[in-house]
Design brief:
By secondary structure, the chain is an alpha+beta fold. It is built from 3 helices and 13 strands, in the order E-E-E-E-E-E-H-E-E-E-E-E-E-H-E-H. The radius of gyration is 22 Å and the shape is elongated.
Length: 185
Amino acid sequence: MSRIGKKPVAIPSGVTIEVSGSTVKVKGPKGELKIELLPEVFVSVENGQAVVARKDDEEQSRARHGLTRQLIANMVAGVNAGFEKKLEIIGVGYKAQVKGETLVLNLGHSHPIDFPIPEGIEITQNEKNKNVLTIHGIDKQLVGQVAAEIRGKRPPEPYKGKGVRYIDEQVRRKPGKAAASKESA
């Protein structure tokens, strides 16, 4: 039995889960999310908890059991509290600016990069440090995907550390060729 799959998902007050056929809808104070269930699993709501069960003991069913439970748990957490990722822009002249539904990034290229902000995502800048972006949303996958796409526009480089990185990311630095020539001399 899947350790994660057999744990019930607690439903906090203000959040409702509706199961109709192979669709699960989760509504909460921050919004609504829905998911199509895979054919190997089914969900039931009982005693303020959502319980995910599988139809048989096949390998694929066991794998999807824990996956479905965690997706539902993420949806409950998202509509209740939401998710956020923080990015930091490091480099001389590197900056970002939110203009309506577009994030304008100046990352050392010959042109600014216009990044359209997807529906359901909100990007804010820190008041004190404009180079810290906070990405908010109720869909954990979408928040992570948007953060990864923004970071992918200029990943941190290993020599000076310039680029876009997650706020808690550690970038391993390399010595430049000047350090290598001092060692050989």
